[in-house]
């Protein structure tokens, strides 16, 4: 049987480790959400870029049409 002081120290360490694991899990979840948002933003920007390129090409074609 552990003396009371050592038992309290052990309990505090177990609680601290539990809190650490909860925080770590939360950080991992936030990292995943952030990565998904960045992927979505990347996709959105690529679509906008593609549309702008199509518009630009359309204007170039109209400008140089000779028929």
Automatic annotation (TrEMBL):
Coiled-coil blocks: 13-47
Coiled coil in keyword set: yes
Keyword vocabulary terms for this entry: Coiled coil
Protein name in UniProt: Uncharacterized protein
Organism: Methanosphaera cuniculi
